[in-house]
């Protein structure tokens, strides 16, 4: 089970925006360099984050900023905005079981309730993780990195 790459890239962009968005103009090209992703991919993710009212993007020459304080942005919101099917991709039933086999014919109904419980628990857990916490983890890693160099 893994979180969609789009979700990880979106979190990366939001951490970058939080760190640098007030001091400099953050563009898709700059985020592309930081993430190692194509600028078109970044623009698509930024567009989804804007539609989800997580960021604002200045018209014209661009530049993105957080639209909400980090404590108001949770991981589920980020992921569901950039990849609405992320949870279903993580916890899903295979698509082509045999209709001729009793197990194959019924496995979707058997697992459906269990998987719905898993999805609901995952969503609830993701809603408890905020960008604020992710930024705290980022700053902790930076401090550890600095201490290793000293």
TrEMBL record:
Transmembrane segments: none annotated. It holds the Pfam family Rrf2. InterPro entries: Tscrpt_reg_Rrf2, WH-like_DNA-bd_sf, WH_DNA-bd_sf. One of its GO terms (molecular function) is DNA-binding transcription factor activity. One of its GO terms (cellular component) is cytosol. SUPFAM superfamilies: Winged helix' DNA-binding domain. PANTHER family: HTH-TYPE TRANSCRIPTIONAL REGULATOR YWGB-RELATED, WINGED HELIX-TURN-HELIX TRANSCRIPTIONAL REGULATOR, RRF2 FAMILY. This is Transcriptional regulator.
């Amino acid at each position: 089970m893994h979180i969609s790459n789009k979700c990880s890239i979106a979190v990366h962009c939001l951490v970058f925006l939080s760190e640098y968005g007030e001091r400099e103009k953050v563009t898709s090209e700059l985020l592309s360099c930081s993430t190692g992703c194509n600028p078109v991919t970044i623009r698509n993710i930024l567009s989804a984050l804007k539609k989800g009212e997580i960021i604002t993007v200045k018209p014209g020459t661009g530049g993105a900023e957080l639209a909400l304080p980090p404590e108001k942005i949770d991981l589920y919101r980020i992921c569901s905005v950039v990849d609405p099917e992320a949870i279903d991709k993580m916890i899903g039933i295979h698509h082509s079981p045999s209709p001729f086999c009793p197990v194959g014919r019924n496995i979707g109904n058997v697992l459906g309730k269990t998987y719905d419980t898993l999805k609901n628990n995952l969503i609830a857990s993701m809603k408890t993780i905020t960008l604020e916490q992710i930024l705290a983890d980022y700053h902790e890693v930076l401090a550890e990195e600095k201490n290793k160099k000293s």
